[in-house]
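Sync notes, pocket subgroup
Present: LS, DG
LS reminded everyone that the earlier model was apo-only. Rerun requested with adenosine-5'-triphosphate included. Inputs:
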Amino acid sequence: MSEIIICKDINFKYNVNFVLKNINFSISQGDFIAFIGPNGGGKSTLAKILLGLLKPTSGSIIYPNVTLFSKNSLIGYTPQDTGINKDFPIQAFDVVLMGFLQKSRFGYKITKNDRLEALDIMQKLEIENLKYRAIGSLSGGQRQRVMIARALCGKPKLLIFDEPTSNIDMLTQKEIYKLLKQININHTIILISHDISNLSEYVNKVLFINNEIVDFDSFKNKLGIYGRFYEEINRKNKG
Ligand SMILES: Nc1ncnc2c1ncn2[C@@H]1O[C@H](COP(=O)(O)OP(=O)(O)OP(=O)(O)O)[C@@H](O)[C@H]1O
Ligand SMILES: [Mg+2]
């Protein structure tokens, strides 16, 4: 698989203490990578660095094959905190369309084609019937699908989902993972999640992030369920 992003020696601090230290890893086209680890470990921070929302304190992000992916390529994103006020009277369709209005495209006006693309995505995610529903009236799982649809607008090559299944029941969680696996056929995915019980059958790589990337081979016996998760993925990739 071709590498599209290399994180080299990345360190990051918001103020005094380093939240991320010595981060080195690469993302290949077609990857489905899980970022896992404890609360406050720096997963969302690393996602924001990849998105260009935060700048590393030191280190660099390298795009080794700019025909496949560059600094300017669109990245789809569902934030951990959706940032959408549930009481705000906005329809699901309008939330999806917001996916076209990224920071990098200031002043962009949504076109007729964008609307058709958004509708097509909603159809594929089986939420077309929710189009005119107020966002606050949807269930958690339905709202997550709307957020995933929003991230898919504009056909981004890379998608970053920050905890898309938190507060979602096991069955819906599994449905969302299956949906992401489908999406993975055409998109590279980073998934941040604490719900690792069903995850190993979907992802091909895992990073355990606890301020630094924890080396599983030396720590697996100390990582409990995380260690087992890692072993499952290793076994799957070998077999
Ligand atoms: N805007 C900010 N200003 C200062 N410190 C921050 C800010 N955002 C996050 N932090 C701190 O950085 C550390 C890493 O936070 P981050 O949100 O990246 O962790 P996380 O791995 O995503 O955790 P969780 O699993 O709880 O979502 C935490 O100690 C957090 O308090
Ligand atoms: Mg987080």
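DG: The radius of gyration is 18 Å.
LS: Residues 47 and 53 are 9 Å apart (CA to CA).
Action: DG to write up.
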